[in-house]
């Protein structure tokens, strides 16, 4: 196993990239800790698969280097990198039995038969296929075939990393939860570096110790699920993580106040006069109905069990509140109060620190 480092890595699928948009991955330097459980999260087309394929060696980066430990592996093949990769759709040998499919990566490496048998049994238990080990893969459902692919990805214990590219897309919802739990257990047991690509935040937040969020070919933030929730570094992270996401409003900042569409609200700390597009961001659970504060227009209320979501608008922008079930909601209210301690200030989409903390 090894720490994986991106050293000034960038990739374009075009032969002569010019504009920013020509780069599927913009220049990045990043370290993936040995033994870390990572989720790579971002919307469709942001570059997740490109990044994964550069780690595994399926794709050669246009610029920069990939290091495993101190070793430069940029020009090495996938096999030489010793990486297991599980794709979105099943990759199985139809004419082989489930057992033979699972044993294949081990046989290839010349593992003794008794060790192969023991390992295949263990993996079959993990993916819930003990009873189907001797069936041919042909004729199994897509769901079962994908479980075989997952099993094959996890069967070798000597790999540098296991990469999962949206592996649960074809799996039914109940099994999804079970398999995710198994992956987590496997990570705890063997400590492999795992990188799990998804565009589903629930999947990312339940699997990973660290979430790497991508947007438009850039890593905009990497951190624990809690840090992404509490202090998003970029408006995309604020909006993408959380359900509903962070509320964002255009604002003018003056010292310890923010002025939003003619109303002034307090901030918890002073800010230097920012230049650029300024927004404040606040999580829906840090806002409450009030008689003073920002003018709010309620559009609808959704009851989602342990809390309610009040969807509405502030100054023409979508704005949501999350209210715990046991907290009464006034029959009529047209203002909302924001908890100053939980307001973030963003300039041109990036979070800025207040003067006191920056000093
Ligand atoms: N083989 C290719 N040739 C040209 N452009 C490509 C190729 N593969 C991907 N791209 C482009 O590179 C960008 C990043 O794509 P990538 O597949 O890495 O994103 P992704 O985040 O994995 O998306 P998804 O979640 O839809 O799989 C996209 O603009 C995509 O159109």
From TrEMBL:
Pfam families: ABC_tran (PF00005), OB_MalK (PF17912). Gene3D superfamilies: 2.40.50.100, P-loop containing nucleotide triphosphate hydrolases. Residues 4-241 form the ABC transporter domain. PROSITE patterns: ABC_TRANSPORTER_2. The keyword Cell membrane applies. Keywords: ATP-binding, Cell membrane, Membrane, Nucleotide-binding, Transport. GO terms for molecular function: ATP binding. InterPro entries: AAA+_ATPase, ABC_transporter-like_ATP-bd, ABC_transpr_FbpC, ABC_transpr_MalK/UgpC-like, Mo/tungstate-bd_C_term_dom, OB_MalK-like, P-loop_NTPase. Coiled coil: none annotated. Signal peptide: none annotated. Belongs to the ABC transporter superfamily. This is ABC transporter ATP-binding protein.
